[in-house]
Amino acid sequence: MCGIVGYVGPRPSQDILLAGLARLEYRGYDSAGVAVIDEDGSLGMRKKAGKLSALRDSLADAALPDGSTGIGHTRWATHGGPTDVNAHPHLADEDRLALIHNGIIENFATLRDELAADGVSFRSETDTEVAAALLGREYRGNGGDLQLAFRNVVNRLEGAFTLLAMHQDHPGLVVGARRNSPLVIGLGEGENFLGSDVAAFVEHTRKALAIGQDQIVSITPDAVTVTDFAGTPVEAEPFDVSWDAAAAEKGGWSSFMAKEVAEQPEAVANTIRGRIQGDRVVIPELDGLDDLFTGINRVIITACGTASYAALVGKYAIEQWARVPVDVELAHEFRYRDPVIGDDTLVVSISQSGETMDTLMAVKYARERGARTLSICNTQGATIPRESDAVVYTHAGPEVAVASTKAFSAQITALLLLGLHMGRVRGSITDASVDVAELAALPEKIAKVLETENDHVSQLAGWMADTRSVLFLGRHVGYPIALEGALKLKEISYIHAEGFAAGELKHGPIALIEPGQPVFVLVPSPRHSALVHSKVVSNIQEIRARGARVIVVAEEGDAAVLPFADEVIRIPLAGPMFEPLLAVVPLQVFAMALATAKGLDVDQPRNLAKSVTVE
Ligand code: F6R
Question: Lower CB density within 10 Å: C or N end of the chain?
Fold first, then answer.
């Protein structure tokens, strides 16, 4: 949460900062601000509540004098509401020093009391201003050594933070630090960048350095120095960004979400690419790591939100193919009890951003307990894969819309690959040829669902724009998709939505059904299990008898659902583990079309941010 960008170089920094913030706005969008050190060596700052456009308008009305050293911030409020005053940057040392922050400084109240006793007064309600004031005091106290002052400050902070700071006495220098919050370096020619992620600078350079936990960085136009919190130099890990700036543009689509939904065939194809050899799944990143899978008797998959629903599909697939028990744990619940884990446990974490604090903490906790850890992640250089023993990257490309779509499909794909890989390594699969063929066929089938059902589903959503509540039912791997369908709808259309395991309905939720209640039902193929199919058809009859308006998602040719359905959405035939990747698509399209019909911003829904880097 919160997007951070920093620049030093020969060019005017303001436009670079604003463009970087535009690419980071998905991380938070309740206020934004920039600070620059101008040619005369004085510091200018502007910050505004509201989306980045409010800051842009303000700068268009009255520009800041430009300079070639600057920092910028887009905020998702934690301490203090989204106001101009609480927006970042925060200033100190008589407004000659500017600081921005992502995360939560847990000991800020103690530090604020200490500074207040020293005569410091505060303008905002934020924890960030406390760090700025502390830096100002250290800086004055040590006679003007910004790097030393910054190091002393970060050593006093508790919690999670990325901080960037600059002082007008030091044009051409931006200092940064990270603890459990993201920060990467972009290496240019005679200029350097800092960003919460590579999107901040990818239009200028695709050469990057990952910074480890508890490390401090200083950038000047010609040099980058990284140390630990004690000041000892450390090597930062170089990597090349695999996508270009165009991949993070809307490219003519009405929204990032529309673009990302449409990109799913490609996201799945890219995630599979290079991981199928003949009729076997072989994941090259896991070469030589067979012992991650052989000496275990249990798998825990941990994640949050949409990623946790992908995890539920993974549970079915891994149990089926690798014959090992799998539990799915919400990351924010996992470490607050005393889970039974050890070196016989493989903890798989799933995160699009690779920065979700809840998931990161779960991974660290698992490692401390001796478990083996593997992450499934979409973002190179992110923290969670760096904290794990192994990583399987999804190659969905940058996901900008807050509501996850293509990353979800890529996560399920990676889990299917992992299940088949584990099954082979553990010797529980002898012939994977059918499943491998199913996997390889997925991109084309997803494209077909988009092609054949997009208009139908969008029309349906248009008719339902006034609906107040929608329910989703599924069984087996359809259950996680019901949960995901409900989450997509509530997060972007603000309509009450709930997903249920179809068999659970009669244990309570069926009381919600009244005449006209829309219910989506995900119907599994009768070819996989006539029993499961018939149970779901019975569930449809139960709700239909109580007046529900039934919208089924069923495979082509399934005629058994026709007498009981008000609407039928068709998906191509696919193997049992592969259906979720087809069934989820119309639900994403439905949520997007309904939110659009209500006139809502599907890319930036209220109260949310894409990367949740606070607990
Ligand atoms: C919902 C959504 C969130 C994320 C969750 C985890 O559309 O995007 O529920 O799935 O916050 O985020 P990552 O995958 O970045 O760890």
Answer: C
